[in-house]
Write a structure and sequence with these properties.
Layout: H1 3-25, H2 29-43, E1 47-55, E2 61-66, H3 69-81, E3 94-97, H4 106-116, E4 120-128, E5 131-140, H5 148-195, H6 199-213, H7 217-230, H8 251-273
Helix pairs in contact: 1-2, 1-5, 2-5, 3-4, 5-6, 5-7, 6-7
Length: 274
């Protein structure tokens, strides 16, 4: 390898590293996926369209970021036809389509070429911690994706992308958990003040409302906070009810919880006096 070859290699490595940084610094899963798309366009020779699909519940994959609507259309088309590179999500590490293997997915390949102008396509599984989290689709204008070095570059890109995406997802989950706990705690405090309940009874009231509405505790807690903000009227006891009057959850429920609180207080006083 000559000095010129080394210099070119150094430049390519520097370009690759520079392209990877935004995906590790992005805030949120969707922003990270968009950064992955940008990185692929920057470092994969011949790339003209790129898409990132992530696994959702029930084993379905959703295209969360793409260079154009054509990528999303092609993604849906391969599912309609039952042919295309998407099968790597269940079996295999990567799949590619080009002139040499056009018979494999003839209908989808023709459709994809018409939609994107691509002559080759590559789909790579995104795997993090031994779990398939999605796939990276790359459409190229020529046969660049058939080149071994290009494939190696794409595989390395996929490893970075999977790590960045799984980290972004975990951070998003943690943020939601913290926000949920904060919102629930705020709602419990509001109910304690409004209905003169202790924290256990206030949480029980919130839980019953959640069960009646068949909604998550976080959702009903947000509703309590919203109602309190909308109807403060200068006093915690004024304004609209913070819980709905329903056959399963009426004012009697609140009164009952308050009475239980009073009984609990009397028992506590008696025990202390004894």
């Amino acid at each position: 390898m000559t000095a010129d070859d080394v210099a070119v290699l150094d430049q390519q490595c520097a370009k690759f590293i520079e392209a990877m940084q935004p995906m590790h610094e992005a805030d949120g899963v969707r922003s990270t996926a968009e950064a992955v798309v940008d990185a692929a366009m920057a470092v994969v020779p011949g790339a003209i369209e790129v898409g990132v699909a992530l696994m959702r519940r029930r084993g379905n994959a959703e295209m969360v970021a793409a260079t154009s609507e054509a990528v999303r259309v092609c993604d849906q088309r391969q599912r309609d036809l039952g042919q295309g590179p998407f099968h790597v999500l269940q079996d295999g590490q990567l799949a590619s389509w080009g002139a040499a293997c056009s018979k494999q997915w003839r209908k989808w390949g023709t459709f994809a070429a018409e939609q994107t102008g691509a002559r080759s396509v590559m789909c790579v599984r995104l795997v993090a911690r031994r779990t398939v989290i999605g796939a990276l689709y790359i459409y190229a204008s020529g046969r660049e994706l058939m080149d071994v070095r290009t494939r190696q570059r794409v595989m390395l890109l996929a490893e970075h992308a999977a790590a960045a995406l799984v980290n972004a997802r975990e951070i998003h989950t943690l943020r939601r958990a913290v926000l949920s706990r904060t919102t629930v705690a705020t709602a419990v405090g509001i109910l304690m003040a409004r209905y003169r309940l202790d924290d256990e009874r206030a949480f029980e009231l919130l839980r019953r409302w959640s069960s009646h509405r068949n909604e998550k505790l976080r959702v009903v807690a947000q509703e309590v906070v919203r109602r309190q903000i909308a109807h403060p009227a200068g006093s915690i006891d004024a304004g609209a009810p913070l819980v709905e009057e329903t056959p399963q959850l009426t004012g009697a429920t609140v009164s009952g919880l308050s009475e239980r609180r009073t009984e609990h207080q009397r028992e506590t006083i008696a025990l202390r006096a004894g």
